[in-house]
Model the fold of this input.
Amino acid sequence: MKERLLIAALCIAALCPAVATAQTHSAERCLGVWEGKMLIYRESKVIETVPIKLTVARAKTAGDFTWKTEYFSPTRPMTQDYVLRVKDLEKGVYVTDEGGGVELADYLHGDKLYNVFEVQGVMLTATYELRGEELIFEVTSGKKLPDEKAGVVNYSVVNLQRAVLKRASAGKVETSPKSL
Done:
């Protein structure tokens, strides 16, 4: 048992420099315009497919990135215009500023950014994962299940939104005129 723990600790230590390098550059590597289709699932069935565009650009403040997502739904088109802010680069901690005082804590592990939050009793998870030339965006949501056993609380995952985005244009995108 001790031998297994030691091997696991050594493997983690060996990977740390690679993770630190990925964390330093992941937001920068997302710069540009990304496009794709979001599949919206409810109870394992696709209920809608929505074309989306994500534009990531450097903001005027160092360490901030504009994170603008446009949803081209024929019934509910919308634009989410957020700022991704580096809070602690070494620890991979970021903040998504949605405006109006709403900030979500984000955590970067390798090339995947995670956040978990609750709104009015609904638990949501959101991830962005950079895989080569694809950026995978997923959001799940569900509610707390009533059966708590042995201190374990379970949540349903009733809804899933998933998009595989391809880079439409890379590199420099105009800096957002919006400042916080």
Notes: The radius of gyration is 18 Å. Residues 1-25, 173-180 have pLDDT under 50 and may be disordered. The domain at 2-170 is CATH 2.40.128.20 (Lipocalin). The CA atoms of residues 89 and 121 lie 31 Å apart.
